[in-house]
């Protein structure tokens, strides 16, 4: 029988006593220097503006996505994809979609890196990745295409048209998960699958080494998201939303994502190290605009909180992790199959 993943929720993540990593916090990327002006550069779908040193996309308005879309964020997203892959032992998803799916949709695809890997993995499938921002590459597998689309508007896809619909790391962008999941359900083929993978905005420690500045950052992110009606994703919420949408055979798997290379387990150490390398970009990417725009903090105060979080993540004395929930369910094939 296969053993449980080393990061499953019931496992105590053991600390590697030999961990000696303290990165130089002063090496903070100075390209994020404050710029207080907001500048509109173009009137096309590429429309973007700079705020506090980061570039944000604005074609659909500024409130849909409070995360930057610049190269620093794109590099972070690509590294984060590798982290998520490692969290799932190299798998792109957990839903049992079979070997030859015909149509797959990845909503909020970001740089499209998951969709590219998915198109390579399933040459039988036509894969579509959608996003508000056209930040995807143009050289992609022939069975993949990207579309600019707002997933919170009514979808133009035919009902019952996808074998698999995938959504990852979107909870900070979604006001009405129930409406989104209804559209996902409608467009999934009977017998097809949907999967939503989200990191919960909460940190835990198994050995009383809570990272105080990182916790402050995480609580501030959660507070800002709650204020704009984008509550953090939990395992219970995942199950309830998928089942309410009509999915059956709903599974929710929760794993521990470590921050920093402190775990003894080799795979978890690698994950934690990659998370540490994205700490500056992640703290700023998730936090900066939420803190200034939603919590009305000054740019300086926001940056202090972001820098505090990344410093804590690099501190070998703090051993913290967040729950990563992967939820998937199947659209019933007939009414008798429905719960
Ligand atoms: C944190 S990134 C996650 C990217 C990708 N899913 C991944 O896991 O690598 C969130 C993405 O969702 C996109 N997004 C946010 N709101 C959206 C919306 N209403 N419609 C489509 N995409 C959206 C953003 O532009 C961004 O690329």
UniProtKB/TrEMBL annotation:
Bilayer-spanning residue ranges: none
Alphabetically sorted, this entry's keywords are:
Methyltransferase, Transferase
- Keyword hit for Oxidoreductase: no
Tell whether NAD is among the UniProt keywords.
Answer: no
Pfam families on file: Methyltransf_23 (PF13489)
Per its UniProt record, what InterPro entries does this chain match? SAM-dependent_MTases_sf
One BP annotation, GO: methylation
Give the GO molecular function terms.
methyltransferase activity
Q: PANTHER family attached here? A: 2-METHOXY-6-POLYPRENYL-1,4-BENZOQUINOL METHYLASE, MITOCHONDRIAL (PTHR43591:SF24), METHYLTRANSFERASE (PTHR43591)
Name of the protein: Similar to Trans-aconitate 2-methyltransferase acc. no. Q9RX93
Organism for this UniProt entry? Pyronema omphalodes (strain CBS 100304)
Mind giving the lineage of the organism this protein is from?
Eukaryota, Fungi, Dikarya, Ascomycota, Pezizomycotina
């Amino acid at each position: 029988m296969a053993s449980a993943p080393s990061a499953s929720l019931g496992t105590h993540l053991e600390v590697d006593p030999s961990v000696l990593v303290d990165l130089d916090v002063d090496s903070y990327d100075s390209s994020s220097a404050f710029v207080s002006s907001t500048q509109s550069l173009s009137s096309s779908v590429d429309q973007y503006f700079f705020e506090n040193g980061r570039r944000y996309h604005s074609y659909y308005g500024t409130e849909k996505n409070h995360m930057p879309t610049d190269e620093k964020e794109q590099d972070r997203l690509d590294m984060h994809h590798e982290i998520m892959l490692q969290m799932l032992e190299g798998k792109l998803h957990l839903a049992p979609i079979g070997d030859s799916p015909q149509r797959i949709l990845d909503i909020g695809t970001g740089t499209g890196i998951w969709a590219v890997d998915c198109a390579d993995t399933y040459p039988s499938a036509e894969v579509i990745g959608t996003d508000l921002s056209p930040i995807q590459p143009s050289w992609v597998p022939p069975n993949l295409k990207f579309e600019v689309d707002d997933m919170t508007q009514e979808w133009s896809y035919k009902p019952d048209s996808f074998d698999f619909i995938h959504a990852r790391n979107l909870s900070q962008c979604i006001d009405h998960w129930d409406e989104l999941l209804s559209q996902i359900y409608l467009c999934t083929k009977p017998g097809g699958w949907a999967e939503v993978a989200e990191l919960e905005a909460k940190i835990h420690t198994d050995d009383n080494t809570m990272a105080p500045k990182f916790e402050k950052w995480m609580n501030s992110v959660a507070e800002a998201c709650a204020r704009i009606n984008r509550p953090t994703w939990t395992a219970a919420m995942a199950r309830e939303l998928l089942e309410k949408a009509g999915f059956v055979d709903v599974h929710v798997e929760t794993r521990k994502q470590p921050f920093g290379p402190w775990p003894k387990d080799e795979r978890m150490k690698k994950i934690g190290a990659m998370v540490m390398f994205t700490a500056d970009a992640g703290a700023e990417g998730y936090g900066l605009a939420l803190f200034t725009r939603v919590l009305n903090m000054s740019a300086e105060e926001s940056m202090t909180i972001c820098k505090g979080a990344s410093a804590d993540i690099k501190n070998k004395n703090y051993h913290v992790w967040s729950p990563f929930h992967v939820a998937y369910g199947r659209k019933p094939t007939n009414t008798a199959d429905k719960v």
